[in-house]
């Protein structure tokens, strides 16, 4: 089953080509159609535009498209409708080129307004991205501060561990010297006793 949005785009493309061909063919062109043929082609394109407008309303009500996309598609439909109205004026009166030019200017103004709206939306998106980047920078700075503090704490812990190690080694050495002194005192007492026994 085709995607409704893709189907809409696929149906719009041939209508746009047909409207462009209808607009570019001049009365002096050998392939120029009769007024009746041109009006029939314009009617067929108009029917397709009405169907696309109806489908676009359905997509908008189903929330299948964002408001910006709906507005953009509606604008191009209005532009195509303006071209078709211009061709209708030419086919009907032959001198309706001025009216057609006015419609063309109107559709151009609508397209420019649509571009301005898209630029405004892009500016809003860029502003939002800037704010998010600023928040990320602040968070990264905070994390760097925490890491620096952690490094300082690790250094302090290493220094404390080294001091405790030196203290333990010092106590070990002092204990060994105390034993050595005790042995010397014992041997001295024993020697003194032996000397007394020898004298007696």
Textual characterization of the structure:
Mean pLDDT is 75; it is low at 26-33 and 89-105. The protein has 4 helices and no strands. The chain starts with a helix and ends with a helix. Helix 1 (4-24) runs antiparallel to helix 2, helix 1 (4-24) packs parallel to helix 3 (67-93) and helix 3 packs antiparallel against helix 4. It has 200 residues and is mainly α.
Helix content: over 70%
Strand content: under 5%
Low-confidence stretches: 26-33, 89-105
DSSP, total strands: 0
Given the C-alpha coordinates, what overall shape results? Answer: rod-shaped
Largest sheet: none
SSE order, one letter for each helix or strand: HHHH
By helix and strand content, what is the structural category? mainly alpha
**Overall mean pLDDT:** 75
Q: What descriptive keywords fit this protein?
A:
single chain; about 200 residues; mainly alpha; 4 helices; about 0% strand
Compose a concise summary of this entry.
The protein has 200 residues and is mainly alpha-helical.
How do the helices and strands line up, and which of them pair or pack?
Elements: H1 4-24, H2 35-61, H3 67-93, H4 97-199
């Amino acid at each position: 089953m085709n995607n409704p949005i893709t189907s809409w785009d696929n149906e719009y493309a041939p209508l746009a080509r047909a409207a462009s061909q209808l607009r570019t063919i001049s009365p002096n062109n050998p392939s120029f159609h009769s007024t009746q043929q041109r009006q029939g082609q314009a009617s067929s394109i108009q029917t397709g535009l009405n169907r696309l407008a109806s489908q676009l309303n359905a997509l908008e009500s189903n929330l299948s498209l964002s408001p910006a996309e709906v507005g953009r598609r509606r604008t191009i439909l209005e532009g195509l409708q303006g071209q078709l109205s211009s061709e209708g004026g030419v086919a009907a009166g032959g001198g309706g080129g001025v009216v057609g030019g006015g419609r063309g200017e109107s559709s151009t103004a609508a397209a420019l307004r649509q571009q301005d709206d898209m630029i405004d939306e892009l500016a809003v998106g860029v502003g939002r991205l800037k704010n998010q980047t600023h928040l990320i920078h602040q968070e990264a700075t905070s994390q760097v501060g925490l890491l620096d503090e952690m490094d300082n704490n690790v250094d302090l812990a290493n220094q404390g561990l080294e001091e405790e190690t030196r203290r333990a080694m010092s106590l070990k050495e002092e204990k060994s010297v105390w034993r050595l002194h005790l042995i010397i005192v014992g041997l001295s007492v024993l020697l003194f006793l032996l000397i007394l026994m020898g004298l007696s």
